[in-house]
């Protein structure tokens, strides 16, 4: 009887902690989504009360009276180009490191991992100087190239850990059957890497889409602003803010990352654990 009581108490405590954790994590997002449909007057007088009236006025305001759609387009272009190069470059480099025998491959892998220790801030002045000399300031490439460089290390680490999990016999059998190394990569390795690819895409999309540092430093014109940088448009003179429009713009900007994460949640979890244990 005492054992059953302790077991139920532990289970109850577990669920209480999990529910509390869920509320803490979900409340800010739910509050933001509701705030996007509330009027400015209600947000200023009763910000934490249950909404009395929901309105689309804030969304009409940001889509008709601001450049939000332009900012979303710019973020989408930068994200797509960055992700395509991140996936192909990191997967090819990882395939060579994990499955091709050559001198210094471990040193090359360690060299890539050093990138995980370098903060964005220390590269801003050298990058700004270099981009100014080659004419890349206020160009999408000035955002894409640094993001590509900083996201490659973690992507290479994920791909390499997964490729080590693939038996060498699979590759050897394909080569014996007459496949080239490029055929092995495109017809065997890439299809087997689907979960890892989706994991890399999801993780890097969140970082690239939400980038603020590189966009702030290297982008000047409104026509090339990204969505995270464009949110500053809703700060008026003397720091006054249109809170309703601001929350509507933030809700619009985080919607793609939420949809991607929840849509690929199972794939991401599977991709993160593949290769973690040797068979």
A few lines on this structure:
With 279 residues, the protein is mainly alpha-helical. It contains 14 helices and no strands.
Write the layout of secondary structure elements.
Layout: H1 2-35, H2 40-45, H3 57-65, H4 68-99, H5 105-114, H6 124-134, H7 141-163, H8 168-176, H9 181-192, H10 194-209, H11 213-218, H12 227-230, H13 243-263, H14 265-273
Helix pairs in contact: 3-13, 4-5, 4-7, 4-10, 5-7, 7-10, 10-14
Written account of the structure:
- With 279 residues, this protein is an all-alpha fold.
- The chain has a single domain (67-273), classed as MetI-like fold (Orthogonal Bundle), CATH 1.10.3720.
- Helices cover 72% and strands 0% of the residues.
- It is built from 14 helices and no strands.
- The protein has helices at residues 2-35, 40-45, 57-65, 68-99, 105-114, 124-134, 141-163, 168-176, 181-192, 194-209, 213-218, 227-230, 243-263, 265-273.
- Helix 5 (105-114) crosses helix 7 (141-163).
CATH class group: Mainly Alpha
CATH topology: MetI-like fold
Relative helix content: over 70%
The span between the termini is 41 Å
Q: Indicate the radius of gyration in whole angstroms.
A: 24 Å
Order of helices and strands: HHHHHHHHHHHHHH
Q: What sort of overall outline do the alpha carbons produce when their principal axes are compared?
A: globular
Strand content: under 5%
- Contiguous runs where pLDDT drops below 50 for at least 5 residues: 275-279
Going by helix content, strand content and strand pairing, the class is mainly alpha
Give the total of domains: 1
Mean pLDDT over the residues:
86
CATH architecture: Orthogonal Bundle
How many helix segments? 14
Sketch the major β-sheet: none
Q: CATH H-level name... which superfamily?
A: MetI-like
Work out the number of β strands.
0
């Amino acid at each position: 009887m005492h054992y059953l009581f302790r077991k139920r108490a532990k289970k109850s405590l577990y669920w209480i902690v999990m529910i509390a954790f869920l509320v803490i994590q979900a409340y800010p997002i739910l509050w933001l989504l509701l705030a996007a449909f509330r009027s400015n007057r209600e947000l200023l007088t009763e910000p934490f009360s249950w909404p009395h009236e929901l309105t689309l006025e804030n969304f009409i305001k940001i889509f008709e009276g601001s450049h939000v759609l332009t900012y979303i387009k710019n973020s989408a272009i930068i994200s797509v180009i960055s992700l395509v190069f991140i996936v192909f470059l990191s997967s090819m480099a990882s395939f060579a490191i994990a499955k091709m025998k050559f001198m210094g491959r471990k040193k090359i892998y360690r060299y890539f991992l050093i990138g995980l220790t370098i903060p964005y801030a220390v590269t801003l002045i050298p990058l700004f100087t270099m981009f100014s000399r080659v004419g890349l300031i206020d160009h999408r490439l000035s955002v894409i190239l640094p993001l590509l460089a900083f996201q490659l290390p973690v992507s290479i680490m994920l791909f390499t850990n997964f490729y080590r999990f693939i038996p060498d016999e699979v590759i050897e059998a394909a080569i014996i059957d007459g496949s080239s190394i490029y055929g092995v990569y495109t017809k065997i390795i890439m299809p087997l890497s689907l979960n890892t690819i989706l994991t890399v895409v999801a993780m890097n999309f969140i970082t690239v889409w939400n980038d603020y540092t590189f966009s702030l430093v290297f982008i000047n014109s409104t026509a090339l602003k990204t969505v995270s940088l464009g949110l500053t448009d809703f700060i008026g003179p003397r720091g006054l803010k249109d809170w309703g429009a601001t929350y509507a713009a933030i809700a619009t900007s985080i919607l793609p990352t939420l949809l991607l994460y929840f849509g690929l949640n199972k794939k991401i979890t599977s991709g993160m654990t593949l290769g973690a244990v040797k068979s």
